[in-house]
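look at this fold:
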Amino acid sequence: MSLLVQVFKWDQRCRMLHRVDILLRRGVKKQAVYPTKLAEVGRLVEARDDRYETGQLFLHRIFGYRGVILFPWTARVYDRDLHNPGKISATTTASANPTQQNHTKEATLRVKANTSATPTAATAQSGDAPSSTAFEANAAESTGTTNVGTASQVDPKEVKGKVQTFYQVLIDTRDCPYIRAQTEAVTFLGNQDSNRSLYAIPGLDYVAHEDIMPYSSSEKSPLQHELFDKFLTHAPDADPPFVGQDTLKAWQEKNHPWLDMSDVHKETTENVRITVIPFYMGCRETPASSVYWWRYCIRLENLGELSVQLRERHWRIFSLSGTLETVRGRGVVGQEPILSPRLPAFQYSSHVSLQAPSGHMWGTFRLEREDGYSFDCKIPPFSLESKPDDLGTPTPATPSAHDKKRDDSD
């Protein structure tokens, strides 16, 4: 009897080994079909303190994609952290234990030390503007409500903008599927019968100067994007060796109002930095009213050592007409992204419309840290300002521009 039991066990082991062998062979076959390879795309060059020129190839320091600079923008950056240096480490609430508070403070100090350094090629790789608008204090007064979303130790009148350089760039389409950011960052109103028609130009982004890691390439077409050859031409004797064509200049001039970025807002809570860039898109007239549209691009970046996950959003939208709208919901754009030390950033765009030519928005993101600690991360308040609506109709230079559904709740 014992001999039969041993034979039975041996037969089971043989079957298990046979299954393992099949799995191994399948795994080897799968690796052979989809091999992982490293390919040289170019050589990093020394980072510059002054602005880069049109045609400069680069790697994005945060999202890692390949891109090329189309043209620079000058924007006013309102960084609330600069006016309250102790806020990042002091915002831990009473619900957090002393160990968590100490950990947050130490992590903040390390982040400050690291981010103050100028990135160099070896790591893989301006004056004051007018004061920020003081709409925070006025919002609660005009609506008769307590503006909890903008409570801060910083007097809004003291937040001044620093002039910094940003860039309009093309993204390599081969990298788009792997970017934790929407690659359709440029939207505008179409000249259609429907007053809710929005159009998007794929593969465009706005990049801050400090996120540029420049590199050079010997290829004549190092970037894959349908607009690359239409906008840029190879010029071996130039530096960088790609120069803008007349089509790029004409496209920039015609679409300037819908591409224009003027203000950037930043604020950090519990080592999570929120950056907001608002854009005015135009006004749609109807027999009953006028509807003004804006888009806003938001980046969440984890500067700490512990992963955090975005759980909820809470927006307040104030219109010059006197209305105050509150929007709550799970996640953003249908996602609840995790910001880890390995993948620290997430970026998305959304839209909002008002029946008044101006207004402002503020709010919070509810985040949950991997140790179970939850907190509200402040979204820096930003104004929604319209412009004269005699700018003509935008003319996209790509046939792949397509409808983008309105979503003003993210």
